[in-house]
Structure formats: C-alpha cells, structure tokens
Amino acid sequence: MIVLHKKSEFNSQKMTEQQKIFMKMAIELSQKGMDLGKGGPFGCIIVRNGEVIGKGSNSVSSTNDPTAHAEVMAIRDACKNLNNFQLEDCDIYTSCEPCPMCLGAIYWARPARVFYANSKKDAAKAGFDDQFIYDELDLPYHQRKIPFKQILADEAKIVFENWLKKENKTLY
Ligand SMILES: Nc1ccnc(=O)[nH]1
Known about the structure:
Layout: H1 6-11, H2 17-35, E1 43-48, E2 51-57, H3 60-63, H4 70-82, E3 90-96, H5 100-109, E4 113-118, H6 120-125, H7 131-138, H8 153-165
6-aminopyrimidin-2(1H)-one is lined by residues 40, 42, 58, 69-71, 96, 98-99, 102, 123, 128.
C-alpha cells in the first residue's frame, strides 16, 4: 500500500467523494451563469464543515462590474453569511484557477484550501487570458500597459501614521 504524505496527496489528482460533489456544484454554477447570461463561464462555491456557505457565478457583463468574478462573488456571499471578513477553515471550489485579482481576494480572505478545475491555460484557450496581468506584476511601473505614477505620497502618509496611532482598530 502506498501511503501518501498529506501535502503530496493534496497536490495529486486524488479527491474525496465530497470534494467531487462540491466541485461539480461549482462547475454547474459556471454553466448556469453562462446560460442565464450573467457573464463568463465561471462558478465558485465556498464550504465550511461540509456545508455550502457561499456561492457565486461570474456576473461581470450583467452587472457592469469588472470585479464580479465568480470567486469574488462567492467570497462576498460567504463573508456576508458568516458575518466575518475572514474565511477561516473554509474551502473554495472554483470551476477555474483564479485570476490575479481573485488570487489577491482569496489571500485577503484567508481560506484553508482552494480547489480548481479548469487551469489558467484552459481559460486562455477559452479567451480568458490573464497571463499578461501576472506579467505586469514583475514589470517596472513605467513599462506597464497601464502607467502608474506616484503623487502626493507625503500627504497620504499622514493617514497611515494616524492609522498606526489609532486605538481600538479592527486589524485584518
Ligand atoms: N477564474 C476566473 C477567471 C475569470 N473570471 C472569473 O469569474 N473567474
């Protein structure tokens, strides 16, 4: 019998029956959202203790919201339901590997694990290529597709100093 180390087991194609069911739900959401004209073919569900606590499907084009990716929608739904800005002990099931925006949102939300079905490469083939955004991260600001220029940093800094001095703040 081969005994897999926990981490390598997570990295392998193996999955539990429960994980399979949850991913099927995320994939179903991706198809439904697309069929209903909500937006692109992406679905996401968030699970805690075996219970679905948040759902989302891509709603970019129907809500005129470029941030309305399935993962962001599901994180908002889950956080609202949990009345918390963190998703501790939660698992995210997304029908496609997250884009850089959702990756950031996921790290801020701090779930336990992320399961994805389609890969970034699959997404690129379907017309959703976000590799250029990953590439932008490594470029000097003046070489980015969208130029970034720092202005009035000394004024904005005062607010950060005030934050550091502030008592009774909610840290995150
Ligand atoms: N992974 C994703 C890529 C693009 N849009 C989404 O909603 N999700």
